[in-house]
Amino acid sequence: MAKHEFAYSGLVNCGHCGCALVAERKKGKYVYYHCTGNKGKCSEPYTREEVLEECFGDLLKGLVFDDEVMDWVSEALHQSNAVEKRFRDEGIARLQAEHSKIQNRLDKLYEDRLDGFIEPAFFERKAQEWRQAQKRLMDQKNEHQNANDNYVDDGVRLLELARKAYFLFKKQNPSEKRRLLDFVCSNSTWKHGTLTATFRQPFDLLAVTNTAWQNEKAAGATSGDLRPIWLRR
Ligand SMILES: [Zn+2]
User: Fold this and answer.
1) 157-161 long-range Cβ contacts below 8 angstroms, 24+ apart
2) How many structural domains is the chain composed of?
3) In which domain, by residue range, is 126 found?
4) Fewer Cβ within 10 Å of end Cβ, the chain: N or C?
């Protein structure tokens, strides 16, 4: 038996007592979920797996946004990246300047060493200290540069994943379903036959923006109205 044959076992807590919801196969066929009842008898009735599946599907539908939202959020991502990039570029320039300053000192130190103004031991000690300082500066600079390259790509990948999540979920096997849900949401609880879950960042922001946008679009708004929706969050 696969480790996660049941997609939602242990993923959802009972809304009455906080115990985990666990799966059980009945008549070798139907899968039911129920509260472990570890804190005493629990009033929540058994629930068919299909019902939970439907609820999680509905939750993920909240992330299925149209091209207008996709375009707008990508644009916002690029803009905020442009601002970040400016800060980073300034940071990189500062680190580079610091590096050059140390290099000048090192060159001067070397000349002093050649001219016999300083002792070899002093030269070695100082040179090593400054080279280490230079290495630290270069490490920081590389970090800035890598962050710069990944920011927009990562964001767009997350957006693509979010809008596909529902469709992926529908065709995935139990362990994949579980992994997807774990990635996208947390704190799932089940009470009176209703699922409550919290989207993790940044899916939470996407979901509220999407819902607000769908409502406003139904009321006749155009994509130019997306900005105030986004900024309100
Ligand atoms: Zn319970």
Assistant:
1) 158/202, 158/203, 159/70, 159/73, 159/74, 159/77, 159/206
2) 2
3) 78-160
4) N
